Give the backbone structure.
Amino acid sequence: VLSSQFFEPAVETMSRGDLEALQQERLLATVEYAYERSELTRAAWDRAGVRPADLSSGADFAELAPFLSKSMVRSRRSAGDPYGGLLCVDPSEVEIVGFTSGTTGDPTPLPRGARAETAKSLARELWGIGSRPGDRLLLAMFPFRLGHRFEPAEHIGAVPIFLAHTAEDVPFLFEMLVEQQPTVFYMLSAPLFAAIEQHASAVGVDVAERLQCLTSIVFGGEQMGTRMRERLAEWGVPFYVASSLGDICSTMECSAQDGCHAWEDIAFVEHLGEDGRPAGDGERGELVVTSLTDTVAPLVRFRSGDMVRLTRRPCACGRTHARIWPLGRVGDEVHVDGHSVLPSDVWPVIEAHSSSPLVLFQLVRRPESRGPLEVRAAFDESPGRSAPKTRRAMEDDLAEALGVRTVVELVPSSELLKQGPPHKIPRVVDA
Amino acid sequence: MTSRLGGELWGIGRYEDCSGRPVPWAISSADLHADADFARRRLEAFGLTPGDVVLVVGLYSGAAQLGPVELAIRQLGATFCCADGTLYDGPRIEACLRQLSVKLLCGLDETPLEGMLGAGLDLGVIGQAEIVIASDSASVRLEALGLRPFRFHRLGPALAVECPARSGAHFDQTQWSIDTTGGIPLLTGGPGRASAVSSLPLSVRGEVLAGQCACGSRDWRFKVPRPADAGITSTGRPHDLVPQQRQRWNDADR
């Protein structure tokens, strides 16, 4: 195994035929299991007039199975069930409750038992980018999703170095780079990137030189701007994008850096176009996931709200599982005067006028969809930078790029960053 | 850091020395399990049983101390959940207490309490947990609200936790010894641990009680005199200067 580029070669490189057969078997079993035990799933299926016995294939599932959504889970939570009607076991069998980041609302509890799908998927991913037994693994994390133990490292046999995902911990991070010579850094986010650059500049350290021991950096949180991508390239360490596969497990780029692998032995993955029909291979659509191995609170045809491109074409790395490219959130669309605006539309304009690689801004959504478009953008005073000029330039350029009259409010970076979690900020807020 | 092991390490965390400087702190798998045994005894003292929900609050950088606590909670068959010990995660603590029936909340420090206040939340919600284990400074705040938290102390890399008898904070004398003869307590780690600690001066003053506790435990105790509570008050919401700055930036030439 040590010499293999794969942590679980038999699973990761399984033929598509075998993988789809395994999926179908697990999918049908999961549907029956969840229908019998999960109140939310059973209610949704009963409402749709579909029974597990009506399905005999993945194609039947795609044709007949009703969807679950975050709002359905939330409404059950509001009614007093913390697990949103998803729990399939007695509450005493729940070992850990992780949480979603809570970027856009109340964090969602994610119950699980002894077996952690994310621990398995992350072990594959970290192994794939070079983590090996005995290696030091630099972890700049927050505990709310996986806890304080990092089980993927236990699976691999790597030694984690535990750091908080905060600017305050960057000096210690620099110390650990010298003392422990870690090989993989998990994970970097835009706020942490800025903190590293700032600290290196303050103490006169060359970041690229300090990071020489690393073979891989994992980047997560939200999209990476052009300026950050260029600067990361100057650091000289390959970086890999990571995300969550619809709250079922992790997903990360492999050595080919051509999309994040969606583990199809753990999740049945679909993506839907605007018409609710399956989007074509390589096209953009909403990620819809079904747990295949979770017996505690399996999600069955859960609309994740994540916009992705998805392909099942073979990857150059040799893995056969699907790949996705995270594009943003479905709910991040703001309608103004008949125009649809996404944060990704605003991003390049703000980046062009920002002195920071963080590209911190938010769209403000009002119930009425009349203009102007309201944008809250970060501004930090520095010599030669005028707030009124920056604001006017942003407003003019956004109006030109989007065809919508725009009003920009400048706020200190700290005010946006404190809306955390530490690795990202909410990009759309209600007025 | 003096490390005695190579490939058998479970992880590398840190502790703060008495000047507040972070010191790397490696623990082995054997250390993890020894510390989890101690944590389990402490949790059992509070009557924790399978199915109870425990909320642990702490930074990821504290994983060398909190990883064993997590392991102990799971070994007891209780449900583990956690929040970051940061300003931004204060609201997660409130959300967790509101959504789950938390029996025991531990590791609470002042920073997430500030985060709760900053988000306009009432600290009284902490009382929804049946048992709260908090730092000295957080305890003072909670006591001002009429709550009665139990206290924990960071003794360098070791933890000491009060029991229901409230007669000192138990520490694991099988792993640590504390010498108080010179006035400043000095901590020394057992010989089997991955990282060596010898006569580490502690920032907390107190005395060691070696006899059996009223709670029935034979784990030794470190008794810290209660700090003077006067003068410690809520600082209110942070970022008070921000509105003025925003107004200057955005109204200048409207």
